[in-house]
Each structure stands twice: as structure tokens, then as C-alpha cells.
Amino acid sequence: MTEFELIYKLINTQTVQRADVVTGIGDDCAILSVPEGYSLAVSMDTLVKGVHFPDSASAYCIGYKALAVNLSDLAAAGAIPAWVSLSLTLPVADVDWITEFVRGVFELAERYQVQLIGGDTCSGPLAVTIQAHGFVKKPLLRSTASPGDLIYVSAVLGDAALGLRSYQGDTHIAQSCIKKFNQPEPRIELGLWLAQHATACIDISDGLISDLGHICSQSQCGAEIMLNKIPLSAEFMDYYHNQPDYQTALSFGDDYELCFCVNKNAAKEVEVYSHQSGLALSCIGQISTADSLSFVDQNNKTVTFNEKGFEHFK
Predict the structure, then answer these.
(1) Which range of residues forms the domain containing residue 204?
(2) Full-model pTM
């Protein structure tokens, strides 16, 4: 495929056509309308072969995950997704690969009514960069937690770590964990609800230890986490024979769940939302006046971890 044939294919396979896109693909710039009373939320992530996804990952899963991780950032800000731009670097413009990649992107984009508005294509080692744009009235931040706030996480942690092991030759990994690694679920609806209830929020991309540490650092506070409150799936517990590997669950990353803080008075509202939405929200600790993040076991003994989270240039 030529570059322009590739662009044409990208244009003609998406079904979402938003009214707020004045000019999309086809001009040097996309022209967009931001609703009155909203601010523009922007996030960008790059996924590189061999770093963010295994060499053997399917084109569909790469496309899906590339969009999902960016939508997760919008969720953490309490933003409504609107548009994305895409930069796709390919060693070869293989028609079958591109077809599956685009299907992965657009199936998720259609669910949240997100329109592709532009980007770039070039030849080189496989890498995907997506910039996601959304609208937000009252943004969720990392810097606004206060001592006494309760700390929650959505769903479960650690399954994505096991999902990666299936690509490393482990044949005992549950399909649900493999899917968690390949197709993380951006918590858009939760983020929109939290915009009215949470004091701070972040998505868990590099591991809870690292990402909650960002909230503590930017809010100039500490946190105490109870390990026995960390939500772990039955599949994770079975894999470790009911002796959970908290190091893996808390530092591997790729969960793309939300970690958020709320005032103690909002705990009941969180419980009601969790019940109504069917999404588990677990209180795992609280913000403290300390200057660090600490973890305690069921006997109230402090536990330390060697690995804090994923770092590219470590």
C-alpha cells in the first residue's frame, strides 16, 4: 500500500462522524469545536514493539490497546472522549495487518464515539502513537488529595502481569488475564462520576506503588495502604496458590484501573455507585500526613518492596 492508500483505508473504515469536527482527515490540520464551558483535555502515549506489546501480539490487540491506554488517561482526568490523532510507523504496509489494526482501534472508538481526525504514517520499526482529546468541566488532578482521604482502586490488580507471562511461554495463564493485558478497559464512566466526587485520581499504568506515589508527591502528602485490602482476582490467587505476590500486583503496571481519593464523607456514595454500576471499588487505605507511601500487612507490620514500578530508562 502507498501512504495515501493507507490514509484512505483509515478514513473509510471508521463509522464515527462527530458534528464538532469541522475539518478532519484530508487537510493539513483538523479544525475542531470545543463546547462552551468545557476545557480541552489532551493525552498522548506511544506503544513500541517489544516494549509495550510482545512481537507476537495481534494487530487487533495492538490497535485496541493503543487507543485504550489513551482513553484511560482521559478517564483519570474525568474527561469525555471526543477525538484522536494517530501516528503509525510500519516496517511494511501489509494490508491484512492494517485491516486488523484498524478494526481494533475503531471497535473501541465506536463504543465511546471517538473520531479519528488526523495523524501521520511512515516506514520504520513498528510503533503506534495516539493523541486523545476530550472535554472536561471539573478536571480530576493528582495534586489535590488531602490527609484523611480514603484511597480506592477499581476492579482488580495484577492480572495484566500474568497476561504477559502467556507470551513468555507460560501455558497456565487464564484467558481473562491474557485479555486484561491485551485489551484493558478504560474506565470512562467511572471517571465521569468521579469528577463530581473524588479529590484526586490517576490511572494505574506503571503499577500502584509508582502511580499512587505520584499523587502523594504532587499532593505533598503520604499514604498508608493495607495489603489485605488490595483486590486480587481468583485467577491471580490460584496462580500463586493463595499466597499472593503483592510485588507483582503492585509494581508491574498495565492494569489501567483508576486509583482515586475521596473524602471520608463520600464513602457511602462510592459504595452505592459500585453496587449500581457493577464495578468493584475497593478501599485500600488512606492519605496521611507522612512524607512517604507505606504498606502494612494484616498484622499491621510494614512491608517494603524492591520494585516500585515500570521505568523506561531504568
Answers:
(1) 150-303
(2) 0.95
